[in-house]
C-alpha cells in the first residue's frame, strides 16, 4: 500500500523512536492550520492499563445512541489504519496516504517523531469530517504526549501502574504525574481505580486546576452482582448487562466508561456493554488458521505486557473453567518480564518462550524462559509460534493455549488471519 511507503519514510525523520515533547507538534500543527482547534468534543483518555477497553465501550455506547464518533488509538495490531476511525469507519487507504503526504510536506523534513506526525494526520482527518465526538487515547504518558494539544470536554484516567519507566519515571507518583498532565482547568475527569500514591498525585494536580474529579471508590463504584453490572454513583444506580469484554478487570473499565458517558450526557449504556469489541484483549480464537493446528485445543490471544496486565490476565484465567493451560509468550526487552509472569504462575502448566517475529526489540526466548522460571513457572524456549503450538498439541491436545505477552505478538497472530475491520 502507498501509505506503507510513506510511513516508512516518516520513521526516518527523528533519530529516536520516543522523544516526549510538544514543541515539534505545535510547530507542525501551526503549519497545517491548527486542525486540533477544529475538532468535535473530545474525551482524552490516559492511564497504564484499560485505556483501549474503556474507549471501546464508550464508542459502542455513543454509536449505539446513533452518534458519529471519531476514535484514535495506538498501537495498531494488523495494520496502521486501525489507529484512525473517522465517524465510525477505519480510515481508507486513499485518505490516509493523502493526509500523510500533506503532513510530510508541511513538516519540510524537520525532526519529528513517527507518533507526532501521524497524530497530526489523524487530527486533519477528524477536523475535516463531521462527527459528534472524538475519543482520543494517549500514546505514552500524557503531559508531553503528542495528543495533549487539545481542549477536551472530558478527561479519563484509567488505572496507573509501573510501565515505560525509562520515559515516565521510576516511581508510581512520577508516572501518575505524567498521566495527570492531561487534566485541564475546570474540565471534569473520570478516575478509574488507583493505588493511593497515584491517586494523591492526581488529586493534587486536579485541585490546582479546579478540575472536578469523579473518583472510583469515592464518587462511584462498579461491581458484578447476580450476572449483572451494577454501577452506583452519588445520584443513584445503573443496572446493566455484564461487559462483552472478558475478565474481572473489565468491570472497573466498564464502570469508568459508563461514568464518562453519564458525564457527557450521551450514549446508550446497554450498547456500551453488549456491543464493545477490542481485539487481543483475552480474545478467543475460533476461526483462525492456528485452529487447524490445534483442533481440540482452546486458543486465546492477549496483548497485555506489564505486571498489572499479568495480574488482570491471571484473574481472568482463574474465572475460566479448569483446564490445563499452556502459554506461548513473546515480550519486548523493555518490559518487566518476571513481574508480568509472577501472578500467572498458579495458572499455567508451562511457558513456551518465543521471539516476536519482525521486532528488533524482542526479548530472546532464553531470557523470557529464564524470567518465567524466576517467577516460579516451568518454561522452555521455542523456535517460533508454530513450533510451540505443535509441541503443546503433541503432549496436551485438549489444552487451553494462551498466546500472550505483547501487542506486537498479538498483531502478528491477527495478520496471519486477515486485516482487522
From TrEMBL:
Domain Mur ligase central intervals: 45-260
- Catalytic activity reported: 7,8-dihydropteroate + L-glutamate + ATP = 7,8-dihydrofolate + ADP + phosphate + H(+); (6R)-5,10-methylenetetrahydrofolyl-(gamma-L-Glu)(n) + L-glutamate + ATP = (6R)-5,10-methylenetetrahydrofolyl-(gamma-L-Glu)(n+1) + ADP + phosphate + H(+); (6S)-5,6,7,8-tetrahydrofolyl-(gamma-L-Glu)(n) + L-glutamate + ATP = (6S)-5,6,7,8-tetrahydrofolyl-(gamma-L-Glu)(n+1) + ADP + phosphate + H(+); 10-formyltetrahydrofolyl-(gamma-L-Glu)(n) + L-glutamate + ATP = 10-formyltetrahydrofolyl-(gamma-L-Glu)(n+1) + ADP + phosphate + H(+)
What cofactor does this chain's UniProt record say it requires? Mg(2+)
Query: What pathway does the annotation place this protein in?
Result: Cofactor biosynthesis; tetrahydrofolate biosynthesis; 7,8-dihydrofolate from 2-amino-4-hydroxy-6-hydroxymethyl-7,8-dihydropteridine diphosphate and 4-aminobenzoate: step 2/2; Cofactor biosynthesis; tetrahydrofolylpolyglutamate biosynthesis
UniProt record, GO biological process: folic acid biosynthetic process; tetrahydrofolate biosynthetic process
Q: One Pfam family for this entry, by name?
A: Mur_ligase_C
Extract one GO molecular function annotation from the record: metal ion binding
One GO term of the cellular component aspect?
A: cytoplasm
Instruction: List UniProt keywords, sorted A-Z.
Output: ATP-binding, Folate biosynthesis, Ligase, Magnesium, Metal-binding, Nucleotide-binding
EC number(s) in its UniProt entry? 6.3.2.12, 6.3.2.17
Q: Which residue range or ranges hold the Mur ligase C-terminal domain?
A: 299-406
The protein's matches in InterPro entries, at most eight in alphabetical order, are given as: Folylpolyglutamate_synth, Folylpolyglutamate_synth_CS, Mur-like_cat_sf, Mur_ligase_C, Mur_ligase_C_dom_sf, Mur_ligase_cen
Describe its function: Functions in two distinct reactions of the de novo folate biosynthetic pathway. Catalyzes the addition of a glutamate residue to dihydropteroate (7,8-dihydropteroate or H2Pte) to form dihydrofolate (7,8-dihydrofolate monoglutamate or H2Pte-Glu). Also catalyzes successive additions of L-glutamate to tetrahydrofolate or 10-formyltetrahydrofolate or 5,10-methylenetetrahydrofolate, leading to folylpolyglutamate derivatives.
Similarity remark: Belongs to the folylpolyglutamate synthase family.
- Name recorded for this polypeptide: Dihydrofolate synthase/folylpolyglutamate synthase
**What gene name is listed for this protein?**
folC
Amino acid at each position: 500500500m502507498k501509505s506503507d511507503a510513506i510511513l516508512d519514510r516518516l520513521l526516518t525523520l527523528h533519530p529516536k523512536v520516543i522523544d516526549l515533547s510538544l514543541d515539534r507538534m505545535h510547530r507542525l500543527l501551526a503549519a497545517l492550520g491548527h486542525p486540533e482547534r477544529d475538532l468535535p468534543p473530545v474525551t482524552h483518555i490516559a492511564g497504564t492499563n484499560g485505556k483501549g477497553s474503556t474507549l471501546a465501550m464508550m464508542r459502542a455506547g455513543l454509536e449505539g445512541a446513533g452518534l458519529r464518533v471519531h476514535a484514535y488509538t495506538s498501537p495498531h495490531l494488523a495494520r496502521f489504519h486501525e489507529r484512525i476511525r473517522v465517524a465510525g469507519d477505519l480510515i481508507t487507504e486513499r485518505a490516509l496516504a493523502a493526509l500523510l503526504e500533506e503532513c510530510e510536506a508541511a513538516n519540510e523534513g524537520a525532526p519529528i517523531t513517527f507518533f507526532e506526525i501521524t497524530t497530526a494526520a489523524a487530527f486533519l482527518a477528524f477536523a475535516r469530517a463531521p462527527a459528534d465526538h472524538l475519543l482520543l487515547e494517549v500514546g505514552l504518558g500524557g503531559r508531553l504526549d503528542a495528543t495533549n494539544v487539545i481542549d477536551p470536554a472530558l478527561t479519563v484516567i484509567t488505572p496507573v501502574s509501573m510501565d515505560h519507566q525509562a520515559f515516565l519515571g521510576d516511581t508510581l507518583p512520577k508516572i501518575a504525574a505524567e498521566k495527570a498532565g492531561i487534566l485541564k482547568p475546570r474540565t471534569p475527569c473520570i478516575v478509574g481505580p488507583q493505588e493511593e500514591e497515584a491517586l494523591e498525585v492526581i488529586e493534587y494536580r486536579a485541585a490546582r486546576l479546579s478540575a472536578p474529579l469523579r473518583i472510583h471508590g469515592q464518587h462511584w463504584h462498579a461491581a458484578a452482582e447476580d450476572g449483572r453490572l451494577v454501577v452506583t454513583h452519588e445520584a443513584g444506580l445503573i443496572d446493566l448487562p455484564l461487559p462483552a469484554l472478558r475478565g474481572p478487570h473489565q468491570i472497573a473499565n466498564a464502570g469508568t466508561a459508563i461514568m464518562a458517558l453519564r458525564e457527557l450526557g450521551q450514549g446508550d449504556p446497554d450498547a456500551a456493554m453488549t456491543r464493545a469489541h477490542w481485539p487481543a484483549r483475552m480474545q478467543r480464537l475460533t476461526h483462525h488458521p492456528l485452529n487447524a493446528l490445534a483442533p481440540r485445543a482452546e486458543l486465546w490471544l492477549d496483548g497485555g505486557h506489564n505486571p498489572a496486565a499479568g495480574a488482570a490476565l491471571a484473574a481472568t484465567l482463574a474465572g475460566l473453567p479448569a483446564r490445563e493451560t499452556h502459554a506461548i509468550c513473546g515480550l519486548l526487552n523493555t518490559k518487566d518480564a518476571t513481574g508480568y509472569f509472577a501472578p500467572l504462575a498458579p495458572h499455567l502448566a508451562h511457558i513456551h518462550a518465543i521471539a516476536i517475529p519482525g521486532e528488533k526489540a524482542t526479548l530472546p526466548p532464553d531470557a523470557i524462559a529464564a524470567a518465567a522460571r524466576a517467577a516460579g513457572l516451568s518454561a522452555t524456549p521455542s523456535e517460533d509460534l508454530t513450533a510451540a503450538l505443535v509441541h503443546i498439541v503433541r503432549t496436551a491436545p485438549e489444552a487451553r493455549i494462551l498466546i500472550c505477552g505483547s501487542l506486537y505478538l498479538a498483531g502478528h497472530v491477527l495478520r496471519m488471519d486477515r486485516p482487522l475491520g
